[in-house]
Amino acid sequence: MSLSKQELFDRIRRDSWQQQLSIRALSKKYGVHRRLVREALSSPVPTPRRRPVRTSPRMEPYKKTVDAWLRADLEAPRKQRHTVRRIVARIEEEFGEAIPYPTVRDFVAARRKEIAAQAGAPVEAFVTRHNALGADAEVDFGDVYVDLAGQRTRCYLFAFRLAYSGKAVHRISRSCGQQAFFEGHVHALTTLGGVPAGQVRYDNLTPAVKKVVFRSRSREENPRWTSFHEYYGFTPFYCEPGLRGAHEKGGVEGQVGYFRRNYLTPVPQVDSLDELNGRLAEFEAKEDERRIGARMRTIAQDFAREAGHLLPLPDDPFATGITLTPRVDRYGMITVKMCRYSVPVRFIDRKVTVTLTCDDLTVYDGRREIACHRRLTGRGAEHLVLDHYLEALLTKPGALERSEALHQARADGTFTAVHEAFWAAAKKALGDIEGTKALVKVLLLHRHQQHADVVAGIRAALAAGTFNEDVIALAARKAAQESGPALTVTADVPASQPMDLDPAVTPLTSRRLARALPADQRPLPRLEQWDELLQLRRKDSS
Length: 542
What we know:
Layout: H1 5-18, H2 23-30, H3 34-42, H4 63-73, H5 84-95, H6 101-118, E1 137-148, E2 151-162, E3 168-173, H7 178-192, E4 199-202, E5 209-212, E6 219-221, H8 223-232, E7 235-238, H9 243-246, H10 250-263, E8 269-270, H11 273-287, H12 299-306, E9 322-324, E10 333-336, E11 339-342, E12 353-356, E13 360-365, E14 368-374, E15 382-383, H13 390-395, H14 404-412, H15 417-430, H16 432-444, H17 451-464, H18 469-483, H19 510-514, H20 528-541
Parallel strand pairs: 1-4, 1-8, 4-7, 11-15
Antiparallel strand pairs: 1-2, 2-3, 5-6, 9-12, 10-11, 12-13, 13-14
Helix pairs in contact: 2-3, 4-6, 5-6, 15-16, 15-17, 17-18
């Protein structure tokens, strides 16, 4: 067992007093020299270890010269002062001596502070900030790695922390762009149930700040960010650039690292970010029972006092997505934020409307949804859906085998081993061209029927030795009837994409439903004229 010297002294003195052990016995028991035992018995406090004075003979002739350079730096502009590398280069240029960089670095690190103190330079001090209830908050992004569907992916952790209670809300996204920035705020404010009444502190993030006005606190904001914080009614405060600014929001700077070390280590393994964000809520619930530093109350107890001082949320959340109108190229693809996504080939050379959020990209033709993708983050990345190219493959069946869309369909599991077996059998029986066309016609069935039902129909067709798509469709309908009611697949959405039972309708919020509807002041309708019409009809018929 490893003991500190103080603990060893205490045990030696205790055993000498209680057990009356001799110096030799104590030396043998603890495996130390008798000289150390005598030292412990003579004094309860160990003698401080003498630190060796390290000299640098090669640096000795140039110490006074370097001191003069460092003193001159006190009057020089900040960006034109000597660095360690420049001092090494000057010594070699002026004296012809090549001194190792670590030797000069260690000397300069100690002497720069001593010379500044001798010259009376002001010492940097930190001032404790008073945090009022429900007033201030801090925001930051930090990178974190996630094993996402078996692939290590760099993601970003958004943290929103209330300054008084230390209550923090987190969200992980694939990017740290403006949509992730906005959606993190919406999630945090909704979770907290209110808006800070004071300032929210930020770095000079690109989603918020277009330009930092030189040597001032003024910032030229992104117009969309201005609309966002004015919509929620909070005031942003931008910290100084660099390390000095990090000290102005030290709470959230430490929060990101603390949360990453304690809840995201080891690297989390999940199938989707939605699953991981669901876990974050459990982690935050554990954090509510923690006490920060020497505080007497937990985070949850402090937040219970603070929640009532937050400003109310707007009736509806801010629309965080952006709308773009790219044109579909001849490959049936659109380019959004330097990434490419496929759309049905019938929209080639037409402009479509794209709604881009932090995690998803949805493509519309007018008001009709025609494609939906998970948002890509790598520059030049592509996502192709095989279903989008089926009409083209009916006329160009030879292009299927080496197509990127087929490669990605195999990778994500939508083109299964059953499809492969059907394709191989169809080509053997009908030839390469006709066999591939038969496969494409079967793939078209996925637009109207469930993926599992079509796969069951393909198995039945293989067992019967037929390649007719009508037979497969009939077998798929039988499989659907046996498995019970299922969702209806529309022609414009691939079967691999999950669909909601209800159409996308914007509901009334709970705040609106809680309000009493105004009384209807309109007069009741008069029906006398309708009665006259009925009487005229009776006269005419008579």
